[in-house]
Amino acid sequence: MKVRKPTTEEVNGVKDWGIWMKEPSEFRWFYDEDERCFILEGEAEVFDVKGNHISFGPGDWVEFEQGLECTWKIRKTI
Predict the structure, then answer these.
(1) Residues pairing with 74 in the sheet
(2) Is residue 54 situated within a structural domain?
(3) In CA terms, which of 2, 32, 56, 75 is 20 to 30 Å from 40?
(4) Under a CB-based contact definition with an 8 Å cutoff, are residues 13 and 43 in contact?
């Protein structure tokens, strides 16, 4: 899992993506395939089973790899 600022090409490529929203909460998740997210609003932290974590918010590009088991902590509605 990693977080960074997206390229212009990546931002332009998300225009056809669906929008996922979630209120402040905590939940476990397993990624059965690679997934990318472009954060429009909100704040969250994600912790993997090894204790590593990332934090992200508006304008961030987040990547999750297949097989990742983690816990999401959404601080502000995403």
Answers:
(1) 25, 44
(2) yes
(3) 32
(4) no
Spatial separation of the C-alpha atoms in residues 23 and 3, rounded to whole Å: 20
pLDDT of the chain along its 78 residues, tens only?
Answer: 999 999 999 999 998 999 999 999 999 999 999 999 999 999 999 999 999 999 999 999 999 999 999 999 999 999
Which parts of 3-60 fold into alpha helices (H)? Answer: 8-13
Asked whether 21 and 78 are in contact (CB, 8 A), the reply is yes
Yes or no: say if 43 and 57 are a contact pair by the CB < 8 Å rule. yes
What is the total count of domains within the chain? 1
| Residue 44 CB-density burial (10 A; 0-12 exposed, 13-18 middle, 19+ buried) | buried
